[in-house]
Amino acid sequence: RIAYVNGQYVPVSKAMVHIEDRGYQFADGIYEVCTVVNGRYWDMEGHLARLDRSLRELQMDAPMDHAALRVVMKEVVRRNRLKNALVYMQVTRGVAPRNHAFPPEGTPPSLVITARRFNLNRGDALAESGVSVISHPDIRWGRVDIKTVGLLPNALAKQAASEAGAYEAFLVRDGYVTECSSSNAWIVDESGALVTHPKGNTILGGITRQTAIACAEELQIKVIERPFTLEEAKAAPEAFLTSATSFVTPVTAIDGVRIGSGKPGPVARRLREAYKARAARG
Ligand code: PMP
């Protein structure tokens, strides 16, 4: 596997960052995860727009402009000879002697891009069976709308899910489900409408969430952006989650409580199909 690290393409085993990188010392960095489906980047515009937003919110310099970034993103995938890929891109505030305040102006940001195989079939199998989730307290900071590499609470939640034999964790703040550890959370209400937490400082605005809303509109399925409680989710006819890597994945159990029939529901299925069709169109 080949990675891009600050201007060079190197084998992943030789790819290194400095011990005084601010990403390493302060989690002072942001990232994006996007996919290449059948040789084409999917939702790239959205991911680059969110990258810019994260940089702006943290007053961080961009490592290069979009045109150059697109070239490097394509080159990493090409060098790894991948047709379907998961691409990870991280920007940090660069290298400087440890000090909480920002380094001097002009300190170059660090940029790392890696790619690995994206197994589309695995996602399909999970979507066929549906996944179970646990609920977990949302103990994250007040700006989770910024996609920072400070993911310790997310990692703890995912680990708890994993130990419980579950796929994801529904994060709960004040009784309401905000999102999951690495995906957005949705339910279907009694009328068949989709319900998901509104954007704001308490969720990450998923690119897949946005595209799923567009797919729902195409299918003439109503989308209501409002908070929903854990109890409401457990009693809902359907639940599902969205992310760049899992697309639309039906949730069939929450804390061991069966959702609907305990099988993936029709609304989530339709939405997943519509989403996949869109991704295939590119
Ligand atoms: N919420 C969190 C906390 C995430 O880490 C992710 C995945 N990056 C998402 C939601 C889903 O976002 P996207 O659809 O852009 O992958």
TrEMBL record:
It comes from the Bacteria. GO terms for biological process: amino acid biosynthetic process; branched-chain amino acid biosynthetic process; D-amino acid metabolic process. Its cofactor is pyridoxal 5'-phosphate. Keywords: Amino-acid biosynthesis, Branched-chain amino acid biosynthesis, Pyridoxal phosphate. Its EC number is 2.6.1.21, 2.6.1.42. InterPro entries: Aminotrans_IV, Aminotransferase-like, BCAT-like_C, BCAT-like_N, Class-IV_PLP-Dep_Aminotrnsfr, D_amino_transT. One of its GO terms (molecular function) is branched-chain-amino-acid transaminase activity. One of its GO terms (cellular component) is cytosol. It catalyses: L-valine + 2-oxoglutarate = 3-methyl-2-oxobutanoate + L-glutamate; L-leucine + 2-oxoglutarate = 4-methyl-2-oxopentanoate + L-glutamate; D-alanine + 2-oxoglutarate = D-glutamate + pyruvate; L-isoleucine + 2-oxoglutarate = (S)-3-methyl-2-oxopentanoate + L-glutamate. Gene3D superfamilies: 3.30.470.10, D-amino Acid Aminotransferase, subunit A, domain 2 (3.20.10.10). Pathway: Amino-acid biosynthesis; L-isoleucine biosynthesis; L-isoleucine from 2-oxobutanoate: step 4/4; Amino-acid biosynthesis; L-leucine biosynthesis; L-leucine from 3-methyl-2-oxobutanoate: step 4/4; Amino-acid biosynthesis; L-valine biosynthesis; L-valine from pyruvate: step 4/4. It holds the Pfam family Aminotran_4. PANTHER family: AMINO-ACID AMINOTRANSFERASE, AMINODEOXYCHORISMATE LYASE. Homodimer. Acts on leucine, isoleucine and valine. Belongs to the class-IV pyridoxal-phosphate-dependent aminotransferase family. This is D-alanine aminotransferase. The lineage of its organism: Bacteria, Pseudomonadati, Pseudomonadota, Alphaproteobacteria, Parvularculales.
